[in-house]
Design goal:
Layout: E1 14-19, E2 24-27, E3 30-32, H1 39-50, E4 54-59, E5 71-75, H2 79-90, E6 95-98, E7 105-107, E8 127-129, H3 133-142, E9 151-158, H4 166-177, E10 181-186, E11 197-204, E12 209-216, H5 217-231
Parallel strand pairs: 1-4, 1-6, 4-5, 6-9, 9-10
Antiparallel strand pairs: 2-3, 7-8, 10-11, 11-12
Bound molecules: cytidine-5'-triphosphate and calcium ion (CA).
Cytidine-5'-triphosphate binds next to helix 3 and strand 9.
Length: 235
């Protein structure tokens, strides 16, 4: 990926990206988490900054060794914190990208002190449903909290199952979320999670489906930004 070949088409644009996994606390030392590496979101942040955008990266847990250059970074732990930061920073954004792996559920309460093993064996962990941040951003745009011109991009990591293939699940998710673009990745068999390469499709709300050729997450990032930039209104 040659930096000198990058377009400078996002100059002056505000891009807000979430990346990495959320951690849902159980007690002061334990959490429920996931294996998200944050690589795709960080690659998007770097690529958007190189294309001239003013980038805010809202980052959960990642395996990234450092912070990307020329990017404002905000660190979060939980989905509830991520939601608050996304709504706050998305207010004046041109493009919002939800690349974070958000826990669907969180423990119903956080113990104030370390949970002890005790004599009775493990207590069940009761869970509450986390807010759907992506759907919430789309709602915020409809009710005027976000600007109507803001382009909202979601991600979906899917496997095929008895209900349909990866693309079927992606199409249904795009409709359910109401975002403008959905990046669909095929996962399982070591694909996507924690790897440097990614493959999938970009689906648009108006029914276009573009296959993403197998390549690095950096290459994926520029394809995703090409697509998002092409739907950002001019001016
Ligand atoms: N997402 C979100 N808030 C959540 C869960 C997911 O904003 N509580 C976002 C993710 O960042 C991603 C998109 O929604 O951009 C799709 O996430 P995914 O987990 O695939 O969708 P879910 O609606 O949680 O559906 P599933 O039952 O397949 O997990
Ligand atoms: Ca989910």
């Amino acid at each position: 990926d040659r930096a000198d070949a990058l377009p400078y088409d996002l100059a002056g644009r505000r891009v807000v990206i979430s990346a990495g996994g959320t951690r849902e606390a159980l007690d002061p030392v334990r959490y429920l988490g996931n294996h998200s590496s944050g690589k795709q979101g960080y690659a998007l942040a770097r690529a958007a900054a190189q294309r001239g955008a003013q980038v805010t990266l809202v980052s959960g847990a990642t395996s990234e060794p450092g912070e990307p250059a020329a990017v404002d970074i905000v660190h979060i732990d939980s989905a509830v914190q991520l939601e608050r930061e996304m709504i706050e920073h998305a207010r004046d954004a041109d493009i919002v990208i939800m690349a974070a792996a958000v826990a669907d559920f969180r423990p119903i309460s956080v113990a104030g002190s370390k949970i002890k093993k005790g004599d009775d064996g493990p207590a069940p962990i009761r869970l509450d449903t986390n807010p759907d941040i992506l759907a919430g951003l789309v709602r915020a745009r409809s009710d005027g909290t976000l600007r109507r011109e803001t382009v909202i991009v979601g991600f979906a990591a899917e496997t095929g199952d008895a209900d349909g293939g990866v693309l079927d699940h992606g199409r249904a998710k795009l409709r359910r979320k109401g975002c403008d673009l959905l990046v669909v990745n095929a996962v399982g068999d070591g694909k996507a999670f924690g790897t440097d390469d990614n493959t999938g499709w970009i689906l648009t709300a108006d029914g276009q489906e573009t296959a993403l050729p197998f390549g690095s997450k950096t290459l994926m990032a520029s394809r995703i930004l090409d697509e998002a930039a092409s739907v950002v209104p001019h001016g």
